[in-house]
Amino acid sequence: MNIMENSKNYHDEQNNINTLKMREVVATLPSFCKQFFRGIQEYTSSRTRLAYAYDIRVFFEFIHSNNSICSKLEIKNFPLSLLDQITREDIEEYMEYITYYIKDGKEYSNNERGKKRKLSALKSFYNYFFCAELISTNPAALVPLPKQHEKEIIRLDADEVAILLDQVEEGEKLTKNQMKYHNKTKLRDIALLTLLLGTGIRVSECVGLDINDVDFKNNGIKIRRKGGYETVIYFGEEVTDALHDYLEKRYHIIPLEGHENALFLSMQNRRITVRAVENLVKKYTSNVTGLKKITPHKLRSTYGTALYRETGDIYLVADVLGHKDVNTTRKHYAALEDDRRRMAAKAVQLREK
Prior knowledge:
The chain is mainly alpha-helical. Helices cover 54% and strands 6% of the residues. The chain has helices spanning 10-26, 33-39, 46-66, 82-85, 88-97, 112-131, 158-170, 176-199, 203-207, 237-250, 274-285, 296-311, 314-321, 326-332, 334-347; strands at residues 100-103, 106-109, 214-215, 220-224, 230-234. The strands form two sheets. The protein has a three-stranded antiparallel beta sheet with strand order 3-4-5, with no helix packed on it. A two-stranded antiparallel ribbon has the order 1-2. A hairpin with a 4-residue loop joins strand 3 (214-215) and strand 4. Helix 1 (10-26) runs parallel beside helix 3 and helix 8 (176-199) packs parallel to helix 12. 27% of the residues are buried. Mean pLDDT is 90; it is low at 1-7.
């Protein structure tokens, strides 16, 4: 099959979409915000900047609604000097506000994680102008980030992984409507789930794969990590077999223009989307375990847990999962580390019994 040269790179395409969306949001913000987004462009991803833009807009909308002076101005006309007039108390009230609010008739709420993200965006925003000596105060630095309560990692057990893949192969417990499409998508679904479970890659990394990113000679896939850098992740025999079986069928599919390179295709012969993979995982895993809400990220946790149990090497797990800081990995697998420390207590015998 000839792969067309003009086929779009998934990651570059997503960056372009994020950039256009961000420009739309920034156009609704005070004009000085453009300087902030230009200033952070070199060391942040387009996805991060877009998230910052949404979060900063919520902050200015709060200020506009709750400050009698600001309410007389359009948000776009807020002067930079306004940042020096905002106090620590204003930001604390904002944090209380975003716990639950209504906008345009729609309800919004933020848990600890959501509040932490919004405050982090505001801290970065204030820090930029403060370090540039364009403002003299930094009230955001005075507000501590919310503490996050650690949740137990949800993952599939080894027997559940086996049951999941068996059921995907057989189509067990699927509805009649789902079975209509199962024969068409079975090989793709097995390959996709086996790849996620056998490498621990992120769902965005998975959907961004092109056919020529798969190297069977070395049993590796080339992926683009968060932050934009490329790396190679290696896979085992089960992933090799599943990908080979799927590619035999994939080469006979004629994709839509612009999707010729994509490894995983949707029923419409387009590159499969993150949402479609999320729905796919939900469809199959709901028949395996009703008590666990399994997402593609939980399959990543399943792989990380299995790898750590087999190797005991937290640095290897961090590297393969693409964590920049090993402490991120250690935090996620703290319970497993504690189990290993308990084993150490029994490993050394001082006197024979």
